[in-house]
Design brief:
- A hairpin with a 5-residue loop joins strand 23 and strand 24.
- The chain is globular and about 80 Å long.
- The protein starts with 30 loop residues before the first helix and ends in a 10-residue tail after the last strand.
- The protein has a 5-stranded antiparallel sheet, with no helix packed on it.
- The chain is an all-beta fold.
- It has 3 helices and 31 strands.
Length: 428
């Protein structure tokens, strides 16, 4: 029997052989159709799945909250600002637009599927009509851990666990340089002219404008996460520490500033917002640190597994975890964060990102460990589409003009674009 990644029969792209099954509610689903080999015409059994108990169809407009403003703020890595009503998260209903998940045909991936249009599996890397795949960038041999597109640069940087950094020309899509770094890359960010790369026991800093280079030592084990704020660079490390350096403009160097202790296992995600630094860890917790004095002011323990990614959107903090959830946090009157909504997935969530679509509406990108990335309208969580990969998509980077990039565990980097341009570009 042909099954999709959830263990269910795939059906959306299977032909019904021109036969309309009876509408009797007691009608059985054809066993041979489920296995993809029914040759009876007409067939006395259904060539479609029966709806589940209580399943209903609703337009996505019914799932949207009326006040949907867009993201505001250019710092997509840190999380675009979300200017919606703070209470809109509480208005999410139980109904959501649900799209059947399909499986990419492995023979199509290898270039030798014999079924063509009649194949029951997907012959494309995505589902959804509002975005499209522009190109694929091949070359990395292992997981693409980070993608960076420095502001004002015409180069795309990709880093991998294959110990290499690749530089791509944005105009031609060609790889122009490959650097062997001598260690697995755990993370990479761009900040101003600086490209900052986290590796085992160190952080490398390159100035892409004047080619200055620094090696920042002090981390113990792999550096899994990096974030910059207020002339400070924060590095989440394998031993649970967050090391801090201050950029010295006079000397063009990075001076050690602090070491934040509190997590008991590796710090794998960092984000900044509203004068706070948020850290997610393999110890299943999120810690909130003050940017003023670098002290921990709150510990959040609602996740039940590794906190894999964090985004700050104005008054909201979004976190995801291998516990199959995305949690939305909002500050109470007392200043502490509390969960205001929990979105559940069927698989562990490994990465989050957010951007405007072509109509300037906010969209959340949610990568799961079933090798898919789901796109949701916010704040309704109505599904917009899915992107598939050979292995987990661990890196997502937002570019200009509706572009976005994904990197997966097989080493593949893909370039995507929203299909129509926004009516008016944001000036923020």
């Amino acid at each position: 029997m042909g099954l999709d990644m959830y263990g269910r029969s795939t059906l959306v792209y299977h032909r019904l052989r021109g036969h309309t099954a009876p509408s009797d509610s007691t009608q059985k689903v054809c066993f041979h159709w489920r296995a993809g080999r029914c040759n009876r015409f007409p067939c006395p059994f259904l060539h479609r799945e029966l709806p589940g108990p209580g399943q209903a169809t609703a337009s996505s407009s019914n799932n949207r909250v009326a006040d949907e403003s867009g993201f505001a703020g250019p710092s997509y890595r840190r999380g675009p600002g979300f200017n919606g009503n703070g209470n809109s998260w509480r208005r999410f209903g139980g109904s959501r637009t649900v799209t059947k998940t399909e499986k990419v045909c492995r023979f199509w991936v290898q270039g030798n599927c014999q079924y063509g249009d009649k194949c029951r599996y997907l012959h494309c890397w995505s589902m959804g009509d509002s975005f499209s795949l522009l190109t694929q960038l091949g070359g990395h041999q292992k997981l693409v851990s980070s993608i960076a597109l420095p502001s004002g640069s015409d180069k795309l940087y990709t880093a991998s666990q294959d110990e290499t950094l690749r530089i791509w020309d944005c105009a031609s899509g060609q790889c122009t340089s490959v650097f062997n770094l001598g260690g697995e890359v755990g993370c990479m960010i761009s900040e101003g002219p600086w490209l900052l790369v986290g590796m085992p026991n160190l952080v490398k800093a390159w100035n892409v404008q004047n080619n200055a280079e620094h090696t920042l030592t002090g981390p113990v084990g792999q550096v899994y996460s990096l974030i910059a704020a207020n002339d400070l660079l924060f590095a989440g490390t394998e031993d649970g520490s967050i090391l801090v350096w201050r950029f010295n403009g006079a000397t063009g160097s990075f001076d050690p500033a602090a070491s934040l202790k509190g997590h008991t296992r590796a710090v794998v995600s960092l984000c900044v917002g509203k004068n706070r630094i948020y850290s997610g860890s393999m110890d299943n917790s999120i810690k909130v640190w003050s940017l003023d004095n670098l002290q921990c002011i709150q510990t959040l323990t609602e996740h039940e597994s590794v906190v894999t990614s964090l985004i700050c959107w104005d008054q909201f903090l979004l976190s995801c975890s291998l516990d199959n959830t995305v949690k939305i946090w909002v500050a109470t009157e007392g200043g502490n964060l509390e969960v205001t909504y929990t979105h559940k997935e069927e698989h562990g969530v490994v990465a989050l990102s957010g951007m405007h679509d072509a109509e300037a509406k906010p969209v959340l990108m949610c990568s799961c460990n079933d090798n898919s990335l789901r796109l949701y309208d916010l704040p309704s969580f109505a599904e917009r589409g899915k992107i598939f990969a050979k292995e987990e998509i661990r890196s997502i980077e937002i570019g200009p003009g509706g572009l976005f990039f994904t990197g997966d565990g097989s080493g593949q980097v893909k370039v995507w674009k929203w299909n129509t341009e926004p009516a008016a570009a944001s000036s923020s």
